[in-house]
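Final report, closing paragraph on structural work. Over the funding period we assembled a curated collection of sequence-structure pairs, and we close with a single example.
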Amino acid sequence: MAVLDDLMIEAARCINCKNQPCVLACPAHNQIPELMKKVRIGDFDGARQTWHETSVLSEVCGVLCPHEALCEGHCTLNKLQKPIKIGWIEEQMSILYKDKVDYPFNKINKKHLVIGLGPAGISNALRMAEYGFEVHAFEKESSLGGAVYTHVPDFRYDHFRLNHFEHRFKELNIQVTYNTVVGIDVFLDDLIDQYESIFIACGLDKPTEIDITHDRDLKIHYAIDLLNRNLYNPNDLEEMLGKTIGIVGLGNVSVDIARTLIRLDKEVHIIYRRTLEEAPASPSEIMEAVNEGVYIHELFGPVNFKKGQSSKVLDCDRTCLIKDPDSSRSKVEVLKDQSVAFNLDDLIFATGQKSSYQVFRDSKVHLVKGKEDYLTNYPSIFVGGDLVNKEKRIVDAMVSGQTVAKLIWESL
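Its predicted structure, as stored:
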């Protein structure tokens, strides 16, 4: 197969750095030089096994990880502007081994529950099943994947790949109850005595609001709602939104909704109070958006959204960045008497998400801030994913799920 030859050729470019900066930059600490050694000589089974020791989500991370900021961004060959295509190799390896299942060596007579099957929950469920636990899960949607399923557009990720996880779940006898919300349909306190351990990975289910004034009868949309495939399809978005759209924020969600709307022939303006260099979105995704026709306006802070004569108007202050000695990010300051108005048909906020903490409704369980971020006041109940991760990245969610699985397994 030509792809195997291409994989071997690309892996052969790795110079096996002594300090292994790619490994240090990877939140999962994938043993990338060792992987490249095995791929280079055609030992794909060995390479896959090495990868699986630190990552169970290659189908997702290989495509959606911000490689240019992590492993590839720290590759020594960046000095020659030719970093190893680590993400592409991971993606291709996941395709080659899409049907591979890692069965447990021994069965452990203990029940484990996972609440939420996004990247954190999937990784935790797989690891616990591979260790030999009897694993059950509750998922509020009709499919696993979490935000990858509900919010990531099809042009960025082939959602059919989530079926690979469905296959592994079936083979490992992981029992999933879909369309069930813990905190509404069932309650956490009623589940505690049914399982030896529980992992909560519900993610962030509410948009973060931005504090601006606006006419009460003007509707402001939220990007995560518009991207939710369970709420809207492209035809709905095309009909409900006008021609000229403003999007506040410059994270990956902002870029995803912008690129989605460009495909619906909208005129899209991203408005951001910082600069591109400080944007949470990956540089490659920003460049894709710009190439597709999205306008990005740096150093503008929204203040007021109001009715105009022929359209709606978003008033913005001009801003500047001041270095903050106590932070890696600059402070944002408003420039006095310098403002600009954007004429828009609709306004979308894409300024982050937060949790409703619905899973803890009427429960005695609560988070505990301690030496480990995954703890609750119950020693058998853990929390992971974006509920506790500072970096809201898929790879960090996966790491939390794997870490908690290892903690539970090693405590036996």
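The first helix runs from residue 2 to 11. The first strand starts at residue 111 and ends at 115. We thank the funder for supporting this effort.
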